[in-house]
Amino acid sequence: MTNFICATCGTQFAGSERPPAECAICQDPRQFVPLSGQQWTTLEELRARHRNAWQECEPGLIGIGSTPEFAIGQRALLLRTQEGNFLWDCVSLIDGATVELIRSLGGLRGIAISHPHYYTTMVEWSRAFHDVPIYLHAADRPWVMRPDPAIEFWESDRKQLAPGITLIRCGGHFPGGTVLHWREGAEGRGVLLTGDILQVTPDRMVSFMFSYPNLTPLPAKAVRQIAATVASLGYDRIYGAWWDRIILAGAKEVVQASVERYLTGIDSLGNRPAE
After folding, report:
1. CB-CB contact of 199 with 245 (8 Å)
2. Distances (CA, A) of 65 to 32, 98, 177
């Protein structure tokens, strides 16, 4: 039995003798199936063709991303704290070097993921570190393609992983879309790890979409809800889903301005969805 991996989104599926007929993640309108058709790979093939690169983002936070890029191309973040290390979001490639490096830094206490596009090989990551829990919001349960006892579904709007480290459900891109608030990050000013629930844009603002590749916007109501959810948090910096998608300072004000820009944009086009 093989745990096949979708080559387009990087999601690993439950074991089977043959590749699945389709990838449910890519068939969803938030994602896509390439014109060349559905393609599959395996973790062994990934290990032969790719490696993971590391970069310190700031003290206590290390980025992990595969090179050459695979699937969606996001990078994960290793958050190091006195309470243990947490992996935020996930990449499909996990190999011996990655495991040894993380073990040398104290291992993992848990894994938390913003939304289903970054579930990837989360079960492999958990098992490599003694079946550490994988924290997913219960609203996104249907998108788990490889069930495992290590997965812990949380159902409230907030879940504290450790003092000063809190998962917050924002919704939007997915019903269970989650960000992580790191209170002590940015020299104590606070950090949000957002994946693409709040997508950092090239001009260092943020935006919000139902589907990024298919350019399908979120309605105004959903964007306002995201803004209201993060408004009470203390943060000055945002790390998005890719290496260069970072707002180093003034992030809270940037989010407020970005919400207004987004709402003005969809309204000026006469396309603002129903409130």
Report:
1. yes
2. 22, 11, 21
Phi, psi dihedral angles at 222 (to 5 degrees):
-65, -40
100, 89 in Cβ contact below 8 A? no
**Report field, pTM of the whole predicted structure over 0.85:** yes
Q: What is the pLDDT of residues 95-150, one digit of tens each?
A: 999 999 999 999 999 999 999 999 999 999 999 999 999 999 999 999 999 999 99
191 C-beta neighbours (distance < 10 Å), count = 30
d(CA 46, CA 43): 5
Total domains present in the chain? 1
Q: What percent of the chain has pLDDT over 70?
A: 97
Domain, as residue range, for 174: 5-268
The Cα 187–Cα 191 span in angstroms is 9
Residue 235: inside a domain: yes
Q: Are residues 126 and 132 in contact, defined by beta-carbon separation less than 8 angstroms? A: yes
**Which contacts (CB < 8 Å, 24+ apart) does range 45-52 have?**
46/5, 46/70, 46/92, 46/93, 47/93, 47/95, 50/93, 51/93, 51/95, 51/97, 52/91, 52/93, 52/95, 52/97, 52/98
- What CATH code is carried by the domain that includes residue 58? 3.60.15.10
- How far apart, in whole angstroms, are the C-alpha atoms of residue 249 and residue 235? 9
Tokens of residue 38, six digits = 């559905």
Here the tokens at position 209 are 């979409």
Residue 121 lies in a domain: yes
User: Cα-flanking dihedrals φ and ψ of residue 166, to 5°?
Assistant: -135, 135
* Spacing of C-alpha 37 from chain mean position: 25
